[in-house]
Amino acid sequence: MSATWGKLSNEDYLQGIRTGDSKVLNSIYQEFQPGILQYIIRQGGSEAEAKDIFANAIIVILRKVRGPGLELTSPFSAYLRAVCRNLWLKTFRTKKRTVGVTDEMERGFVDDSLTPDAHLEKTVLHQLIREVFIKLGEDCQKIIQMRWDGQSYAHIREEMGFGSEGYARKRKHVCYERLMGMVKDDPRIAEFFN
User: Fold this and answer.
1) Which of 30, 124, 174, 176 is the most core-located residue (most Cβ within 10 A)?
2) Would you state the pLDDT for residue 190?
3) Where are the chain's structural domains?
4) Is the pLDDT of residue 59 over 80?
């Protein structure tokens, strides 16, 4: 007996995509498109981008099911969502959203032991955190950036014109707490931990 995690079994979804069965395709659009659209829009995409990504995900899955050996060990919905996330990440990268974060900071988030999907989620999460980072005040960005770059509190004190290293530590702590509060309050980031 095949496992069912939606209205249909994984095999029924894949077979319907493979054969172009309009009932199955309509079911996929009705069941899963609203959630995917909502996810991509929350991540900063437009509704048109989200619809394109969903349609392209179906095409990607069609190519996979027509090839050899696609066997899902997780729900079809999870597989579809992962494909959509991959496509969204590619779109997101081509937008070239730039923020004041160094390559060194990005390297700190790379973990070669992660699976491709886990790496993708971590990359998207990192991008969202960078978006929150640029909402901090300029002084806080500068202080946190200097610490991430390995600068000493003596250097930060001098660079920022603070009276003591203790005050530099306190300001870094306050800025970091503000950043963490903003990260916790961002619903797009909270989704990764639900």
Assistant:
1) 124
2) 67
3) 1-96
4) yes
